[in-house]
Design goal:
The chain is α+β, with helices and mostly antiparallel strands and 205 residues long. It is 22% helix and 31% strand.
Length: 205
């Protein structure tokens, strides 16, 4: 049996036993992860996803791809040139099981990209949404209560309004969420290690 899964913006056709290199996942070597975005299982095509299907895999190692060289040269009176190298962070894993049904009851943690905000950090903003009154008048005030749960990220040294907006667009609106960001893998904005450290201190207070 084969399946087509989606992760890191790419699609992979896999069978049990296949070894894949995918965009870096937030998992250590030896851990088992589950991909829930399944586009096809055998001849069953999803619309857009196959209901309750999953692909489970074991993480072999965290690796880096081949170096890519980016060279730019400007032919002008005052010419300039610049060379940059990049090695993509990848996760090497082995497909162990393909589930046609029962993905929600498997108990295996979902495969999350390393740049994703952890579920534990997202729990910080959930109580504010749940505490919203049930009355019709109070529902109109719910968006204000949710907005109040966000922290002022510009209080962190080096974070300006533009960087704060990019972080908010990526789902990072509190000190706790910024403290949980993986500096090396977060692509929405270049997060500095000192921002994360300051966020940790502010989250405690």
């Amino acid at each position: 049996m084969f399946a087509v899964l989606k992760t890191g913006g790419k699609q992979y056709r896999v069978q049990s036993g296949d070894v894949l290199r995918v965009e870096k996942l937030a998992a250590a070597a030896g851990e088992k992860v589950q991909f829930n975005e399944i586009l096809m299982v055998g001849a069953t095509v999803g619309a857009p996803l196959v209901d309750d299907a999953a692909v489970q895999a074991e993480v072999i190692d965290q690796i880096k791809g081949e170096k890519v060289i980016h060279f730019v040269k400007r032919r002008r009176k005052h010419s300039s040139k610049r060379t940059k190298g990049h090695r993509q962070q990848l996760t090497l894993l082995r497909v162990t099981d393909i589930l046609e049904k029962g993905a929600g009851k498997s108990g295996v943690k979902a495969a999350l990209g390393a740049g994703s905000v952890s579920a534990a950090a997202m729990e910080v903003v959930k109580p504010a949404a749940k505490a919203a009154p049930k009355k019709a008048e109070a529902k109109a005030e719910a968006p204000k209560a949710k907005a109040a749960a966000a922290d002022d990220l510009t209080a962190i040294t080096g974070v300006g309004p533009a960087a704060a907006k990019k972080l908010a667009d990526a789902g990072v609106t509190t000190y706790a969420q910024l403290a949980a960001v993986d500096v090396d893998a977060f692509d929405a904005v270049k997060v500095k290690p000192e921002w994360v450290e300051q966020a940790k201190e502010l989250a405690k207070g």
